[in-house]
Amino acid sequence: MATSHRVLLTGANGYIAQHILAQLLEAGHSVRATARSQSKIDALKKTFAKYVDTPQLDFAVVPDITAPKAFDAALASDPPFDRVLHTASPFFIRPADSSVFLEPAIKGTTEILEGIVRVAPSVKRVVLTSSFAAVRTMTSEPIRNPPKIYTNEDWNKVTLEEAQASEDPNVTYSASKKFAEKAAWDFVKEGKGNFELVALCPPGVYGPIYDPSQFSKGKELNQSTWIIYHMFLRPGVKSTDPVPPTFLYVWVDVRDIARAHLLAMTVPEAAGKRFLTSAGDLSMQEMANYLREALPEKRDVIPIGEPEKTDKPEGWYGTEDPTVQSVLGLTYRSKEEAIKDLAPQLVGIAEREAASL
Ligand code: NDP
């Protein structure tokens, strides 16, 4: 039987984190789940009712991850933690407010690392949910000859000064992920912690919501799911509306990035590594096609676009990281499965939203 770990999972109510939590519990690990408020924890308790009041699951409210010693109370545990998965970070790009990203991402990361040193020196490994946004400069030209292939060694070129002065939330979000991840690597390089670090850099994360009954309006969804809902299924959208251009082709299934977190916290060879966990290309037109196939009853709603035009333009960038498979041992689900498993959930949310208008 595999070793079971005592794990602190931050931002546990998030879209990705709920899948991580489910997989951790199913694998027999013991988890303390943190969220910003008791109401978010109460929602989690409903979803994970089977594990509530068992030694496998407990909770902590961390109201402000930027506060000094923010995580100290949450990190105190008996049995002590040996793993920390830090997913909590702002990723809500609508409505545009560029000022919300940098401080919680960077300070939230350094706070938890300092807390581990102070309160939980038993932690052997920390997994940080970074992003492809930390890898690619999102405002740079996507097309080149030859095309740019991003790897786990690339970093976006945004400076902290540019980000602080920018009113574009895409710029500040990217910078928040870059400087949070850099802060974590610097912490380890400077020998401040007695733990190993692993960083995961997912691109667009799509696929089913762990518990769609938590949602009754599109605006409650996380950024990446909201995009699909908003483009293709929100109340009022019509099949004759255009399919919007693809701004991010690279993607990964939410269940796979969750599994990547479990592998990152357990695979010995993953220590000290950064992984660009991308399953390849997925265009908006392909999303429309899969949604229309999965939901024939919504043929008057989901934009048709040009179903044959699914390829990305010549010269558009790509990604490559063979260590995801060779070191982590992660393989990817198909894009069709990701979108088709999400499709009926979004219909349910659109119906609840329409009923409330
Ligand atoms: P969610 O919005 O569902 O989850 C984000 C989590 O972070 C929530 O628990 C949220 O809490 C918490 N959080 C947000 N802002 C703050 C803040 N200021 N202080 C404390 N906690 C905060 O998004 P995802 O699940 O998609 O994202 C999880 C992680 O994955 C993030 O680090 C994100 O950058 C990263 N990521 C996501 C991608 C995607 O396509 N989804 C792609 C690449 C990386 P609350 O509910 O209270 O707001």
Major β-sheet annotation = 7 strands, parallel
Strand order of the largest sheet: 3-2-1-4-5-7-10
The chain-level mean pLDDT equals 96
Secondary-structure class: alpha/beta
Q: Regions with pLDDT < 50 over 5+ consecutive residues? A: none
Using the coordinates shown, work out and report the CATH topology.
Rossmann fold
**Count of distinct structural domains:** 1
What percent of the residues sit in helical stretches (DSSP H or I)?
25-40%
Q: Architecture, CATH level 2?
A: 3-Layer(aba) Sandwich
Please report the total strand number as a whole number: 11
Q: Estimate what percentage of residues fall within beta strands.
A: 5-15%
Q: How many H/I helical runs?
A: 11
Distinct small molecules? NADPH dihydro-nicotinamide-adenine-dinucleotide phosphate
CATH class, named: Alpha Beta
In brief:
By secondary structure, this protein is an alpha/beta fold. Helices cover 37% and strands 12% of the residues.
